[in-house]
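User: My collaborator sent over this chain with a note saying "see what the structure looks like." That's all I know about it. Can you take a look?
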Amino acid sequence: MKCYKLFARGEHRWLAFTQDEHKPGSIVDTNQVVITTSGGAILLDPGGIEVFPAMMGALVHEVDLETIGHIFLSHQDPDVGSGLALWRQVTRPGTLVHISALWPSYVSHFDADTKFAPIPDEGAEITLGGTTLRFLPSHYMHSPGAFSVYDPAARALFSGDIGAAILPDGPTRDVWVSDFNSHVQYMSGFHRRVLASREARDAWVEMVARLPLDFMIPQHGLAFRGQDIQRFLDWLSGLDIGCGVDAYRGRAARG
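Assistant: Without extra context I'll predict from the sequence alone. Here is the result:
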């Protein structure tokens, strides 16, 4: 698994762990993000149990595990956090897991001994050292209880499944989108199917468009920076989403 440094200013860093060449072919590639600060570190969507060994192998070269006191789960899917029981054993005692208040009793099926810090629907903030991170609502994008993470100091956004791309197998890529128009083909089907609410989509785009941003990284695929962030927001705003509803109409037509 590769580590990309997305941002670095002293002890304040954004690290993306991704492109695991040895993962089982049956699982989707994921981006695990770590934010380090003078006051400790937080894991963002640290991944499923299948990628834990590769993630650990890469992480220990960059981060002291004793500094990790927080884990953030953007939503409840297994590729986001089914490795929780393993992370609890290697991070410091009392590590808090931040997730929508909808999900602790469900995600406890991954690890009943996890110490959750439920996030209310309107969001929350945490401060690590001098760095304040904001958990921003992204409900129904695709999960009914989901959050993005905004770091004003780094001008960075972890967007969860928003902006995700399902990339074909092939040579190792850079972590950044280099040709937005070409990249759309890897995002389109995923977003049309997993995003359920146009109202939620419009609200999220409006919220993010107001943020000073230098880069945005989703849980799958490549990261966006510079003008590609606005290109993504414009593309997402015009996308026909909720395509799974077509199955209902087809069923009704068949009688």
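A starting point for your reply to your collaborator: The chain has a mean pLDDT of 93.
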